[in-house]
Specification:
Structural class: alpha+beta
Shape: globular
Strand order of the largest sheet: 7-3-2-1-9-8
CATH class of the largest domain: Alpha Beta
Distance between the termini: 61 Å
Order of helices and strands: EEEHEEEEHEEHEEEHEHEHEEHHHHHH
Number of helices: 12
CATH architecture of the largest domain: 3-Layer(aba) Sandwich
Largest sheet: 6 strands, mixed
Radius of gyration: 21 Å
């Protein structure tokens, strides 16, 4: 008899409640939540099957119960537990991310706008696209107008801008979206799927994708305008002029082929801890959220989407607060890791 309930946050950031017994979860409930079903050939979802090669994922006493840790490992997923609150979160392993990155293809992004309406990056496939990541906890929240100017300037040459706010709550980004009223799509990614799939650790970050859905320039820091150039130390036209040359003439900058720094499994686990923190924050559990963010910060100390975004998530001041200033000073003294401009 199933006796308890476990909250599962899947790798797409969706939350599921699973019946459990001891260390196992109900197999049918797990299939309903994730789409993965145990078959004789392995774990299968749609037309994809992952062989188990002798790995046991069920309870020895009951094949209707799944060992979630073994199941996750078989699917190359990392799992993070918050045993105090019966919550677990899944993220793809670093190895899985390397495989996806090696393909050169832009990962899919099916998100929602500030009002919850579906918005898909894939809808712009066939055009040269710029993926712009920003957040309300960054001065780049003022730069949506700068990206509108570029969209207007380069639209006839085939450019499409797609903007994503990496915020914990759509309401955090709403004032800046409504004030700018951009004509290009703006999504709000509370699960930070964009950061995870594209390797974004700071904002404002941009990624260039060509007409064939290939990533031709990985994430780099690119302000929309010069409003905060004293802080960023990166003039906006340093990126924009190179973007114009690519859109109009097909000329890629010398640095376009630079490899993105590989993420480790620990840095991936940090994203799972952040998802659990967001779950606690939505439930009004501020202290457990802070504890999860502290764990995430230890695993990924230079990931601003975790560190600075986490300050904002739990009610701190991500601009002039003592916690942020201390983090910024440490990061700046370490050579601004991860803060790479377009060259």
């Amino acid at each position: 008899m199933l006796s308890d309930v476990l909250t599962l946050i899947d790798s797409d950031g969706r939350v599921h409640e699973l019946p459990t017994w001891a260390a196992y979860v109900d197999a049918e409930a797990l299939t309903a939540a994730t789409g993965w079903r145990l078959r004789s050939v392995g774990l299968c979802k749609n037309d994809v099957c992952v062989p188990l090669f002798g790995r046991e994922v069920t309870s020895p006493e009951d094949a209707g119960l799944i060992d979630l840790d073994a199941w996750a490992a078989a699917l190359d997923q990392l799992i993070v537990h918050d045993d105090d609150h019966e919550v677990v979160a899944l993220v793809p392993s670093a190895g899985w991310r390397r495989t996806v990155a090696a393909s050169g293809k832009a990962p899919p992004l099916d998100l929602a706008d500030v009002d919850g309406r579906p918005v898909s990056f894939d809808d712009l496939s066939g055009s040269k696209r710029v993926l712009v990541a920003w957040a309300s906890w960054c001065g780049c929240r003022h730069e949506l107008g700068g990206w509108q100017h570029l969209q207007d300037e380069l639209a006839d040459a085939g450019l499409r801008v797609f903007s994503v706010a990496l915020d914990a709550d759509p309401e955090d980004s709403r004032p800046w979206i409504e004030a700018a009223a951009p004509s290009y799509p703006v999504a709000v990614d509370t699960a930070h799927l964009t950061a995870e799939r594209y390797g974004i650790t700071n904002v404002p970050s941009v990624v260039w994708i060509d007409e064939d859905d290939r990533i031709v320039k990985p994430p780099t820091i690119a302000p929309g305008d010069d409003g905060f150039v004293e802080f960023t130390q990166i003039p906006a036209d340093q990126h924009h002029d190179l973007l114009r040359a690519w859109v109009r003439d097909g000329v890629l900058p010398d640095g376009a082929g630079a490899e993105v720094a590989e993420r480790t499994d620990d840095e991936q686990r940090a994203l799972a801890h952040r998802r659990i923190a967001l779950h606690h924050r939505r439930a009004g559990r501020t202290e457990p959220a802070k504890q999860q963010l502290a764990l995430a910060g230890e695993l990924a100390p230079w990931d601003w989407t975790v560190r600075r975004g986490g300050i904002a998530m739990t009610g701190g001041d991500p601009f002039l607060g003592e916690e942020f200033i201390s983090f910024w000073e440490e990061w700046n003294a370490s050579g601004r890791p991860g803060y790479r401009p377009t060259t």
